[in-house]
Amino acid sequence: VNGSLSGGICYPSKRTIVHNNKTIAQLDRMHYAILAIAPGHHVLRTKHGPKVEFDTVVGETYYVMGGDKVIFPVCVTTIKKLSKDEADRLIANMKPQQAK
Questions:
Q1: Coil, helix or strand for 88?
Q2: Which residues of 8-45 are buried (b: 16+ CB within 10 A; e: fewer)?
Q3: Nearest by Cα to 64 from 46, 76, 41, 39
Q4: d(CA 77, CA 97)
Q5: pLDDT tens digit string along 47-87?
Q6: pLDDT tens-digit map of 37-55
Q7: What is the separation of C-alpha 6 from the centre of its chain, rounded to a whole number of angstroms?
Q8: CB 68 within 8 A of CB 96
């Protein structure tokens, strides 16, 4: 999920999500992607920002959001794990990212 947390846009370009030093998604603002990730420990990060760590197991679904938050006068990039309810509320207002 790639969205603005505050309503302000810091960087209107694509948000790059990296896993094990490999780009796994490039999301436009207000878009989401569904990605398959193997079971185990994972570290996802934005290309030039923070990271989120979590462990996955077979059969479970995990939701992660990356975005920007304006804390005047600074723009802060965030990435965090979400609950299904939080993700469902955000995804309802987003579009799926088309594969290129």
A1: helix
A2: eebeeeebbbbeeeeeebbbebbbbeeeeeeeeebebb
A3: 46
A4: 20
A5: 877 899 999 999 999 999 887 777 777 777 888 899 999 99
A6: 999 999 998 887 789 999 9
A7: 15
A8: no
CA distances, 44 to each of 2, 7, 21, 93 (Å): 13, 24, 9, 23
| Exposed/middle/buried for residue 69 (C-beta within 10 Å: 0-12, 13-18, 19+) | middle
Angle at 89 between CA 17 and CA 93, to 5 degrees: 75
CA distance 11 to 5: 12
Cβ atoms 32, 94 nearer than 8 A = yes
d(CA 44, CA 21): 9
CB contact set of 100 (below 8 Å; sequence gap of 6+): none
